[in-house]
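## retry 2 of 3
previous attempt timed out at serialization; input unchanged, resubmitting
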Amino acid sequence: MTRPPTAAQRRVIDAADPVTGRLRATQAQLTTLVKRGFAFRHPRPPHDHFLTPEGHRVRQGITQAPEPDEPGEAPASTGVFAARVGGEEAAADAGPARRREVHSAWQGLLELRRMTNPGGDVDRPCGWERAHLVRAAALALEADGHGPAGREGPGYRVRETPQPEAVAVHEPDGEALRACAATLEGAGWQVSEHREPRGGTRYLLASPRRT
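## retry succeeded, writing output
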């Protein structure tokens, strides 16, 4: 799980443009934020840096305490937002705080789409989602109210597949599986239903739509 930002990194994130999430910092600071998952480098000139969904969440204050700048005892609680792909130990925590986190991350992702997709299109996935397929699909599902598989019982599981730009979504309940398909299609993914060779269990293959 990604560690929370240091106090110095948090100051850079807090200073981002409140609308676009554009960052201004030294190249070393920006490179570190990219490596930590809080920022991304725009593929088109002038190659500015912008906040990722995790970075937007940090800026909006839905995060844990920053790490100390100097070596020392780390905070007792570590980690920032991560979309639940199903099977996590903490999946049973679905209270108001988690819902706020998910909503904030989803809004940040929509802003990322607006900033990076041609024409500011927010109806289809962006480059960041294509580079983080499992996390992106899981965020779309959780943001629409679906529950991941975990300690509370059955739910969705999003997993990698051998196919390029495709994830598998498993959900034991047939009606819930169809609802997952509708959510992903609404979020700009191409979805098809399949059966496993052994057992015939239904699952979804989902890929980010390009047009």
